[in-house]
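User: Reviewer 2 asked us to show a designed sequence for the structure in our supplementary figure. I'm pasting the structure tokens here. Could you produce the per-position amino acids so we can include them in the response letter?
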């Protein structure tokens, strides 16, 4: 039977490692921030670039530079060339181990599909997008940290797909790596130094309360997700929704005006109103009974919130969850958006009192509300993903394809204007149409 999708042809499967002898053998122990993600699905991003050149031009002029720049970047980010394994002699401790010669899977492919169909905002079949995502193989004894796939749409564009083991690093660190690789590529494959260099010192994260053991115990009781290739994606589409700067400003003014009327205050930022607006649309789409609870959770960077704070260049995981719950009746009511924004804003304010307060139940709390399909968030506008320039200009589109569960969304800064927000999600086509109706109808109301 012929494939329903345009053909993808693999041109090369190779390995890229740091320059020989450039990195001494090393091991980095996983911290309690890392071990949370030990059995989770890899984080997958696709970066689409306009590239109006034939495949021969890419292979002759661009591919060698992409590989050499990746090699020198891995010299500075060596854990991504290493493997996650159980620490020798331990039953519950894990580490990222690197030895000379460790490498990253690097796939080059050619696709004869419509580049714009893949990279536009409208709903694109997630199974088509997954053709562009490298698989990160799992093994009992060691798990690789990174895989890369570069797919060329001749005379139209390039897609760079990366899969990163979440136990190796969070979004902040992975984007530090991606921008460093892009910078090296843009400069011709050389990288005398990374500014700022990644910081690997695990002693900066203390664990006097034994959170590692708590999290490891909880993770052991979790079932590892199926490999992404086996997840059913029938009729699932990825779509991107945008909130423009002027729309966000209207939403902020609405929230602040209602807060002033009630003589209350809370944290009200671009991300707060963006998440609140999407959450309201999501709850309305689901049609939940008003006496139920609506749940949301999103990651918060802990680097600047720990005592003492960590530098922004710390490489690894250093995020904690921010949980929010509101009665469905409050979210879908006339003042639902304001109620959602207030709940999110106050939850963020509550983190000021101690980012690790209640950390012992982070995983159990999250698992307990999973049956309610909470809205969960990947990414951040602070990552500035559209500044990832390999020498072909900024990306036309950046997608997170690992948000395949119900209620998962991704957020990024707008590529079109300063101060805007992009929201990505994966839903069945008919459900996406319903969400879209709530999203755009709501924007019409605030525009009046």
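Assistant: Here is a per-position design you can include in the supplement:
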């Amino acid at each position: 039977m012929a494939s329903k999708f345009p053909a993808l042809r693999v041109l090369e499967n190779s390995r890229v490692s740091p320059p020989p002898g450039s990195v001494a053998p090393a091991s980095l122990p996983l911290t309690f921030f890392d071990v949370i993600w030990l059995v989770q699905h890899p984080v997958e991003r696709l970066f689409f670039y306009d590239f109006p050149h034939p495949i021969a031009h890419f292979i002759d002029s661009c591919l060698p530079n992409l590989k050499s720049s990746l090699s020198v970047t891995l010299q500075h980010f060596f854990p991504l060339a290493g493997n996650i394994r159980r620490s020798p002699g331990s039953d519950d401790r894990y580490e990222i181990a690197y030895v000379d010669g460790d490498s990253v899977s690097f796939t080059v492919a050619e696709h004869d599909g419509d580049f714009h169909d893949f990279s536009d905002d409208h709903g694109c079949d997630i199974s088509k997008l997954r053709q562009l995502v490298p698989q990160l193989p799992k093994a009992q004894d060691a798990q690789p940290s990174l895989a890369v796939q570069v797919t060329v749409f001749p005379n139209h564009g390039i897609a760079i797909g990366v899969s990163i083991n979440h136990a190796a690093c969070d979004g902040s660190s992975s984007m530090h790596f991606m921008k460093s690789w892009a910078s090296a590529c843009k400069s011709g494959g050389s990288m005398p130094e990374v500014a700022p260099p990644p910081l690997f010192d695990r002693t900066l994260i203390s664990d006097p309360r034994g959170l590692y053991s708590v999290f490891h115990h909880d993770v052991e009781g979790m079932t590892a997700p199926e490999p992404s290739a086996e997840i059913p994606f029938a009729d699932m589409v990825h779509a991107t929704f945008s909130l423009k700067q002027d729309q966000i400003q209207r939403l902020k003014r609405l929230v602040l005006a209602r807060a002033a009327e009630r003589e209350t205050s809370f944290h009200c930022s671009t991300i707060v109103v963006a998440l609140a607006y999407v959450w309201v649309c999501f709850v309305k789409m689901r049609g939940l009974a008003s006496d139920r609870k609506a749940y949301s959770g999103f990651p918060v960077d802990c680097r600047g919130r720990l005592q003492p704070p960590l530098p922004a260049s710390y490489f690894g995981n250093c995020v904690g969850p921010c949980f929010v719950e509101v009665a469905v009746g409050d979210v879908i009511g006339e003042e639902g958006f304001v109620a959602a924004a207030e709940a999110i804003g106050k939850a963020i304010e509550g983190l000021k009192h101690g980012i690790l307060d209640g950390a012992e139940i982070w995983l159990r709390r999250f698992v307990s509300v999973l049956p309610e399909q909470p809205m969960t968030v990947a990414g951040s506008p602070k990552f500035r993903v559209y500044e990832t320039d390999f020498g072909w200009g900024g990306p036309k589109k950046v997608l997170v394809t690992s948000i395949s569960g119900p209620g998962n969304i991704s957020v990024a800064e707008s590529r079109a204007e300063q101060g805007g927000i992009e929201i990505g999600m994966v839903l069945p086509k008919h459900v996406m149409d319903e969400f879209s109706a709530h999203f755009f109808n709501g924007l019409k109301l605030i525009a009046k």
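For the response letter, you might also mention the following. The first helix runs from residue 32 to 35. The longest strand covers residues 8-16.
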